[in-house]
Amino acid sequence: MDQSNGKLESTTRNAIRCKAAICRIAGEPLIIEEIEVDPPQAWEVRIKILCTSLCHSDVTFWKLNANNMISNDMPRDGTSRFRDMKGEAVHHFFGVSSFAQYTVVDVAQVVKISPDLPLDKACLLSCGVSTGVGAAWKVAEVEEGSTVAIFGLGSVGLAVAEGAKLRGASKIIGVDLNPKKFDIAKKFGVTDFVNPATTGGKPVIKGLTDGGADYCFECIGLASLMQDAFSSCREGWGQTVILGVELHGTPLSVNCYEIMRGKIITGSMFGGVKPKTDIPFFARKYLDKELNLDGFITHKLSFKDINKAFDLLLEGNSLRCIIWMDDH
After folding, report:
1. Can you list the GO cellular component terms from the UniProt entry (predicted)?
2. Closest CA to 214 of 161, 170, 244, 151
3. pLDDT in tens, 42-68
4. Residues 115 and 135 placed together within one structural domain of the fold
5. How far apart are CA 268 and CA 132, in angstroms?
6. Per the structure, how many domains does the chain have?
């Protein structure tokens, strides 16, 4: 490729053959097959994926079929229906998972790029870590000395904890049914833990925060948990941020009186992150060792073992499993 004069020119116009992990029946194991990839069209870029990973959204859509479709109120677009192929990017239709690495190998036409941003490497927006770090910083704007409750300690919830810690929250409460998450969560700034299975349905968060958390984050995608988060935030100014995607079609019901008294509830896609300006900011935080991104990596596998990565997620034993396209 020629990158002179701030331009990137394609050197090939041919289809290529590569490996892909394919699932033709929802919920069935993926099969590694060779596929043909067309050359890029106008404004498209063809990339070679070096590694990627999975998140729970991958598991959700892997299982999704016509019989357990999202609510009729949801759009039937790429985020709401089972696709018969999971390529090497795996999470390609809902945002690509964190830690993925790519090399640009072909473009369809001459593309003008800024001199300080050569198009020889690509990094796509994370659906997990960027959603959590961004939600604490960009959406809620967690304040120093405030209290935070996080419902769900997967990678999104832990990223919220990381962001809340950096914003100076005085108390960060993690809520999860899996007790194995608690030791991990400490590394991301969680100070207190609640297992709903052991509380008997009591309003524990209000007791731990003297009336309610200043900020609550729902990171699972259950309407009932969204309601719990809203009821756990402080009356008068408490804010609840919904990060989980409700895939069962269950409506969310909240008390209008609490809204009138000042409680806020809001949703967020990707944590309000604007890639062009915010990803460099978070990258600098990571390089300065202020962001603990490495702590999310719990496993590393080769592409041929991609089904094992799904198993690890289903078992609750993985945050981010790095899947290398070549053996490492």
Report:
1. cytosol
2. 170
3. 777 777 777 788 877 777 778 776 445
4. no
5. 10
6. 2
Answer yes or no: do 134 and 246 share one domain.
yes
Q: What is the pLDDT of residues 247-265, one digit of tens each?
A: 777 888 888 888 888 999 9
Containing H/E element for 246?
none
Domain that holds residue 239: 129-272
Quick check: 209 pLDDT over 70?
yes
pLDDT value of residue 123? 56
Name the E strands within 178-247: 192-194, 215-218, 239-242
Residue 24 neighbours by CB distance under 10 Å: 10
Task: With beta carbons less than 8 A apart as the criterion, state whether 182 and 176 touch.
Answer: yes
Task: Give the span between the Cα atoms of 98 and 123, in whole angstroms.
Answer: 9
Q: Is residue 106 within 8 Å of 46, Cβ to Cβ?
A: yes
Residue 221 has pLDDT above 50, yes or no: yes
Q: Which residue has the tokens 């959700």?
A: 60
What are the residues whose beta carbons fall under 8 Å from the beta carbon of 28, sequence distance 6 or more?
none
Whether pLDDT at 75 is above 70: no
Six-digit token pair at 327? 């053996």
Same domain, yes or no: 259 and 279: no
Distances (CA, A) of 311 to 22, 232, 245, 305, 316: 16, 33, 21, 10, 9
